[in-house]
Amino acid sequence: MTIHLVDIEHIEHTCPNHPDGHPYDIRRTLVHVIPGGPCRTPVTIRCGDTVVQIPCHRHEPATRQCGACRIIVTERTITTRTPNGTAA
To answer: Which domain of life is it from (predicted)?
Structure first.
């Protein structure tokens, strides 16, 4: 499995419709990637006389991908701020 480690920052404000506040800008920063390795079940694609093998993540839905091609996103930190930069 390829693991992506992500930091998330929510910037929120209050307005007459949402007095409790709501996020209007969400930023995600990719911090680290742990590769899962080479594909274990490549898919054979034929186009005329040409035969090519590609990794299963380029062709199959996530439920049919091998363990090395699946992607997991892990949230390391979630920070909430207001427009003036203070933590909410």
So the answer is: Bacteria
DSSP at 87: B
51 pairs with which residues across the strands?
46
Determine contact, residues 28/11, Cβ cutoff 8 Å: no
Interatomic CA distance for residues 81 and 88, integer angstroms: 5
Range of the domain at 34: 2-81
Instruction: Provide the domain count of the chain.
Output: 1
pLDDT tier, 24 (very low <50, low <70, confident <90, very high otherwise): confident
Q: Which of 42, 43, 38, 44 is nearest to 68 (CA)?
A: 38
CA distances from 82 to 10, 18, 20, 64 (A): 8, 14, 12, 42
Q: What is the pLDDT of residues 30-83, one digit of tens each?
A: 999 999 899 999 999 998 899 999 999 999 998 999 999 999 999 999 998 887
